[in-house]
Design a protein that fits this description.
Two copies of one chain form a homodimer. With about 260 residues, chain A is α/β, with parallel strands linked by helices. Chain A is built from eight helices and 14 strands. In chain A, the strands form four sheets. Chain A has an eight-stranded mixed beta sheet with strand order 5-8-2-1-11-13-14-12, with helices on both faces. Chain A has a two-stranded antiparallel sheet with strand order 3-4. Chain A has a two-stranded antiparallel ribbon with strand order 6-7. In chain A, a hairpin with a 5-residue loop joins β9 and β10. Chain A is globular, with a radius of gyration of 18 Å.
Chain lengths: ~260, ~260
């Protein structure tokens, strides 16, 4: 099977003009078929402040009321997405911007209200990926760029976690490609020893992960990311790479950057 | 050749929730292949006011400074475009949103500064339409929905007139389809007598136009629209229809609404 890179870049890179440009340059250098998913960043909060829209959070998750939904649809789906697409076009990548509504490419449902009402937050339907359209675009040489928004098929846009969009797309496209799911973050990779920045674990499988869990040297905050990585792999993704956005350029072959998680 | 409808709807419809819904319902009922181009509307001005961004106009044209460009990229490319796409999806049309940057589908150049500096306003390049991609999407059953923004291929988004985008797309796609270019506006059509709302001219060709010019019964403000229509027809478009957005549903065969302009 042909390779496909599904790459998620977070808000911390989006917010920094130089870091974003460096990342996009690295994205250009990826020769495989590729999909980019971008987070939102603080720009929505700063524009929201100027519009008098309060950012509300419960347990670290943004509550999306109607005004906030309009805000993120504007900022993530418009400003951030189009500026990334235009920048990639200038660098020779035929990027095409998407929210889930475009081409019905990613459907979700409004998160059910239990203890907390998250408002217009979307949970993606696993069967909600228009894989045929995505494949057609990739085969035509296009690089889809996703904003973290889906729709429910009934006219409602929904604010959605970019990590989840990335893993859902990666799993769905595993039917057609050998998928490498890449999460760009602020460290060089997963540290074998949380007190040593140079202790990046180059390759991680379930056996080693269990050993590391037992020796309690992993940073606790990274555990959900690793669990999600193994979940994606169990669902068909070939491998998950976690590392620094600007190292993305050194992705070729065995000489990969960051931590490569596989079965 | 197969038919293609290229339909432009203006800001006055976009600004009115009921009028927009009525128009979209009519758009759904068009059975031919179709492309929608939407204007901006006053929502950018009202959000701009809240953000402290002044709307500057010279001779009725918006001056697009950097803050205004960010504003229209957010509002037209994000909020307006995505809400239209999601609404069409809910009505069963497989809509897909575009700015000119997406898939490099529409390139322009920054308007040269002569007496007036229009800022980040784009003049479309006639050869700047990615007709292959557009054709591929139409053949796949998708309905492209354009926000009035293009890019210059060097990373710069540009604010662009929606009427011009519509006529440029219509002319470019005439190589593959029998194109009807439709301008939705606030009258039933072109009035033979400006003082009589019921004097809609059903069919207009160059000969009749010359006669009407000679008898001076046309509303002066409509003359540029008619001149542009004939220009599009001379460049390959089969016919141009001008009429009320909500009448769009009655488009079938000879029993068309509004004023049909042809050679």
């Amino acid at each position: 099977m042909e390779k496909l890179f599904v790459i998620k870049v977070g808000g911390n890179v989006i917010d920094n003009k130089d870091a974003l440009d460096e990342f996009l340059q690295a994205f250009v250098s990826v020769n495989e078929k590729k999909i980019l998913i971008h987070g939102g960043g603080k720009i929505a909060t700063s524009i929201g402040d100027r519009l008098g829209i309060d950012s509300k959070y419960i347990n670290g998750r943004r509550i999306t009321d109607e005004a906030t939904l309009d805000l993120v649809t504007m900022v993530y789906g418009g400003l951030v997405n189009k500026n990334i697409v235009a920048a990639l076009q200038a660098k020779g990548v035929n990027a095409i911007g998407f929210t889930g509504a475009d081409g019905n490419i990613l459907r979700g449902v409004k998160r059910p209200v239990k203890e907390i009402d998250y408002g217009f937050a979307g949970d993606i339907e696993e069967t909600g990926v228009a894989t045929d359209l995505l494949k057609q675009l990739l085969e035509s040489g296009l690089a889809p760029v996703f904003a973290p928004l889906v729709h429910n098929g009934e006219g409602q846009m929904l604010n959605t976690n970019a990590d989840t969009i990335a893993s859902t797309l990666a799993v769905a496209m595993s039917a057609y490609y050998e998928v490498r799911l890449i999460y760009c973050f602020e460290k060089k990779g997963i540290l074998g020893n949380v007190e040593d920045e140079n202790s990046v674990v180059k390759n991680l499988d379930k056996k080693l992960y269990q050993e590391m869990l037992d020796s309690r040297k992993l940073f606790e905050g990274i555990l959900p990311k690793i669990e999600n990585a193994f979940k994606a792999i169990d669902a068909g993704v070939k491998e998950v790479l976690i590392g620094d956005a600007k190292d993305l350029v050194n992705n070729a072959g065995k000489n990969h950057f960051g931590t490569l998680i596989s079965n």
